[in-house]
Amino acid sequence: MLTHLRIVMVRPRGSGNIGSVARAMKNFGAGELAIVGPARTQSFWARAMAVHARDRLTDARRYASIREAIADCTLVVGTTCRSGLYRSHSRSARELAPVIAAAAQKGKVALLLGPEDHGLSNKDLEHCQLLMTIPSHPDYASLNVAQAAVICLYEIYLASLAPAAEAIHRAQGEQVERLFEIMRAALLKIGFLDSENPEHMLLALRRILGRAGLEEKDVRILTGMFRQIDWYVKQGWKVVEEKERRGIKIR
User: Fold this and answer.
1) Please, are residues 152 and 96 in contact by the beta-carbon 8 Å criterion?
2) What are the extents of the domains in the chain?
3) Which of 127, 138, 157, 243 is 20–30 Å from 119 (CA)?
4) What is the pLDDT of residue 172?
5) How many angstroms separate the CA atoms of 122 and 82, rounded?
6) No. of H helices and E strands in the chain?
7) CA dist., res. 246 & res. 54, Å (int)
8) Can you give the pTM of this predicted structure?
9) Which CATH class is domain 173-246?
10) Per residue of the chain (251 residues), what is the pLDDT tens digit?
11) What is the C-alpha to C-alpha distance for residues 32 and 58, in angstroms, rounded to an integer?
12) What is the Cα–Cα distance from 150 to 56, expressed in whole angstroms?
């Protein structure tokens, strides 16, 4: 049921944790393990902690960047235990689990797990449409990455057993990333984004559009709109003004 759920471990530090995550994946039926950055998936501790899930380690795919790891995914969910401006919209694992389970019935879904020392960075979170957190005691809120994986996968698995809600057909991650590249360039040219910190507003836009759930046709419409803005800023305004002067329909 969760064969389209991809667990993406970003710059993992402990091979034992990789093995533990692989075991949790097999416990709850998650299909793919992806590793961003160097990692020892065949070390003694990785294999020892995986136990009967060593096939997940053998089949794990390696990527140089998060963007490559999520290119064919229609939904990307980041995990965090920290608060802050860019993380204030995070939702609990229990709340997001039905959304993830439903999306995994229609296309590939990526769940990002950050490195053990600091978790996912703000730069990493730029690729995520949704943010998941696990409520825990404020005295020590940070969970081990393998423990967090178990809890997240358990909640998603439980949600997958319930009658499936109708899921939208989301656009793939690479299509969304290209949209944001075009959006970024256009909004910088018209002065909507702060040139010294454009990612601040872009993260907010990612959050808004991530909640909406972009389908392929939505991405095409938005891409066309921002390309038109770019055209207008470069030279199109002259064409528009001339047509208005002559009373000609712009389109």
Assistant:
1) no
2) 5-161, 173-246
3) 157
4) 86
5) 11
6) 11, 7
7) 72
8) 0.76
9) mainly alpha
10) 799 999 999 999 989 999 999 999 999 999 999 999 999 999 999 999 999 999 999 999 999 999 999 999 999 999 988 666 566 678 899 999 999 999 998 899 999 999 988 899 889 988 998 999 999 888 888 899 999 999 999 999 999 998 766 667 788 888 888 999 999 999 998 899 888 888 888 888 888 888 777 888 999 999 999 999 988 888 877 777 777 777 777 77
11) 11
12) 15
Residue 234, number of CB atoms within 10 A of its CB? 10
Tokens of 7: 């667990």
How many CA within 13 A on the CB side of residue 165?
Answer: 10
User: Is the dihedral angle over the CA atoms 151, 154, 157, 158 positive or is it negative?
Assistant: negative
CATH architecture assignment, domain 5-161: 3-Layer(aba) Sandwich (3.40)
Residue written as tokens 């075009």? 182
**Cα separation of 68 and 75, whole Å?**
14
Which of 153, 147, 79, 150 lies closest to 118, judged by CA? 79
Residues 6+ apart with CB under 8 A from 64: 36, 37
Residue 21's Cα: distance from chain center in Å?
Answer: 18
Q: Is the dihedral of CA 53, 58, 61, 63 positive or negative?
A: positive
Non-local CB neighbours of 143 within 8 Å, separated by 6+ positions: 81, 134, 136, 151
